[in-house]
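FYI - complex with nicotinamide-adenine-dinucleotide, inputs then prediction.
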Amino acid sequence: MIKDKNILITGAAGFLGSHLCKTLSKQNNIVAVDNLYTGRLENIKDLLVNKKITFVKHDVTEKLDLENLDLIFNFACPASPPRYQADPIYTTKTSVFGAINMLDLAKKTGARILQASTSEVYGDPQIHPQTENYRGSVNPIGIRSCYDEGKRCAESLFFDYRRMYNIDIKIVRIFNTYGPNMDPNDGRVVSNFITQALQNTPITMYGNGNQTRSFCYVDDLIHGILKMMESSSDFIGPVNLGNPIEFDLLDLAKIIIELTNSKSKIIYQNLPSDDPSRRKPDISLAKEKLNWEPKIDLKTGLEKTIKYFEKVLKNESSNCSRRKVSCISFGPSA
Ligand code: NAD
Ligand code: UDP
């Protein structure tokens, strides 16, 4: 268990960062850094009454000078495709300059640093399931490349800082994760489908819905990330963290419609370019080195997530006289 440490979390007000803050602030001192680009202060505002957590509004593309750090979790970066494609140059800067600035801080303070990398380093994968030694199939000039190549470059920087300065690094490649604290307007598939189903508006299916993803509930993922951070210094990764059970999107939509008892119908829209057709992690390495595997099945995780979105939509509608939360969607006919 991570205890009595001074910890920096970047991207702290986002979906995953806020869960890290919640878990780690119980027994550690946290500096929670975010520029609120896609994150929301309400995700961590209840935690801020705790004197062990300090919020710093800061853009990681700029240098950050702090002392006395034991651990750094580098999570700052928009993760939803419409959000990271909204300003792709800024997305690349966040991954690349953000990595350099946080690695410099690790070098100065001697902190161990963990990078939130992604299954997107595999692009539209040609092997299935994806293992860590697969080098990927990324279109370097496509609309997703700001994110994919930014994250690939960040991994490269982590390894170069280790080779040059012996920095204590860890890299996790996170696969699609969902759960409470996702932004209902985020534009990712789970938040879009649940929000649409709860509002009885059409479910926006991009393409024919045969593409697959493997969805991991956030508590399982956070558990894996903490195990990685605590693992011995000779295991640096990259290691896949995700749920290896694969679903196609039509199945996902059907389960969500059923769990919400929704009247929503599926409408089909154009598939965005470079959208990966299949994705499923091989988690043998995480099982072997971290003794980790996900425990929460999709239905159970979705039930918890639906409860969260019901609460968010209720607050939204009472705040805005029943204004509907509009989902971000994209693609030419969206
Ligand atoms: P998110 O968008 O909810 O959180 C990202 C946070 O980073 C936000 O709070 C945002 O305001 C902050 N941020 C963005 N740019 C910043 C900048 N320049 N300076 C400071 N803060 C900045 O996304 P998330 O799902 O919580 O993802 C967190 C991290 O995990 C990201 O690095 C993402 O690439 C990685 N990841 C997430 C998933 C997933 O399924 N959730 C999958 C793979 C990788
Ligand atoms: N998607 C969809 N409808 C939506 C949002 C997303 O059909 O309203 C699809 C998207 O095209 C992709 C999958 O769902 O095939 C997962 O998308 P998401 O943005 O959640 O994450 P990705 O894995 O693509 O980064």
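The longest strand covers residues 112-118. Residues 272 and 331 are 5 Å apart (CA to CA).
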